[in-house]
Amino acid sequence: MDRKAFLKAGHTPTLFAAFLYFDLAFMVWVLLGPLGVQIAQDLHLTHAQKGFMVAVPVLAGALLRMLMGVLVDHLQPKKAGAIGQIIVIGALFVAWQFGIHSYEQALLLGCFLGFAGAAFAVALPLASRWYPPEHQGTALGIAGAGNSGTALAALFAPGLAMVFGWTNVFGLALIPLVAVFIVYLLVAKDAPECPPPKTFAEYLKVLKDRDAWWFMFFYSVTFGGFVGLASSLTIYFNTQYGLEPKTAGYFTAACVFAGSLVRPIGGNLADRIGGIRTLSAMYVIAAAFLFGVSFGLPQAWMAVMVFVGAMLALGMGNGAVFQLVPQRFRREIGVMTGLVGMAGGVGGFYLASSLGWSREVTGSYQGGFVVFALLAVAALIGLSSVKNRWRTTWGAAHLTSARI
Questions:
Q1: pTM attached to this predicted model
Q2: Which fold has domain 11-188+208-392?
Q3: How far is CA 369 from CA 26, 150, 296, 307, 374, in A?
Q4: In order along the chain (404 residues), what is the average pLDDT of each group of 10 residues?
Q5: What GO molecular-function term can you cite, just one (predicted)?
């Protein structure tokens, strides 16, 4: 990639603001996961309740992404993002001041944290609309590297909870969240060429296109695997290997950093060799690692190595999917980001909750991991079935300068 050409092609301050906004939003979106061990101890939760508690923000974020996708096209990305972030800041402030005293209250907070997960539907269109087709994978990879916020939560939240108490972590999270919100308001700009707003009924017309459903399925595996693991691994390492919450958080952060930091690499690789080829390879790798870890490796460090491999594949797969989406649905990028992001969150909800249920019912996490590995295989088969059509229709060389 020509770095100078890329810098001239779009608006770098907005790309930077989109990354920061996404990063801090994702940090608080999965906050209940790294705090899950301490919360579960104080609220006396079962394995299934722990799994469901960390999965609820993921599901809420998935459903709210559709709403945020509509708001992005009606209000423009910057204003839509500001509204969502104000809601998240308010919810964390209430949780900090009044505390969480029951399982139901934890679930309610998780619903509000879903607005942070919906930041996905803001950050990507905010960045995407500034860049031409040949730079979409790189631009969306950089903005999407805000996934790394999930690692920040795993890295710092358990340790801070041990020192200050887990309720006060909600207040501490407000400090960087508000600081980045101010930066976002100051430097982010909406692209001058934005598609005109459509009615909600017109958005639903996208669902009549079978390619929309394929993209939703593909992302439910790549992003669903990433965020499902990011939400669950602190509890997994604590339960499976008896690690202290702080140590389990460090192990989780290592895995999540791997998956989040390679998202731009996945987008850039897709720009170079094509999104279909990149995504196909990532599904094979992810399925192999998830199947391998399902057998319950004897040492925690072995599990970390396998999870890192899986997260690398899933993270690069995220970048590859969003190298393809803008090529097929450029004029509907706002609603498609919402739809595809929603599907990704649903996949994450399934994985996080199924791991808890699997542990409760069978005494092992194996079932949850095996089924998700099979979903990656199914996605590979599906991608193989559509690749020829994609490359000869909307991905044909005479219609786009991007590699498909």
A1: 0.84
A2: Growth Hormone; Chain: A; (1.20.1250)
A3: 23, 20, 10, 11, 9
A4: 66 88 92 95 94 94 85 86 95 96 96 92 82 74 78 93 96 96 92 71 81 95 93 94 94 90 84 90 96 94 96 92 84 76 91 93 94 96 92 72 72
A5: nitrate transmembrane transporter activity
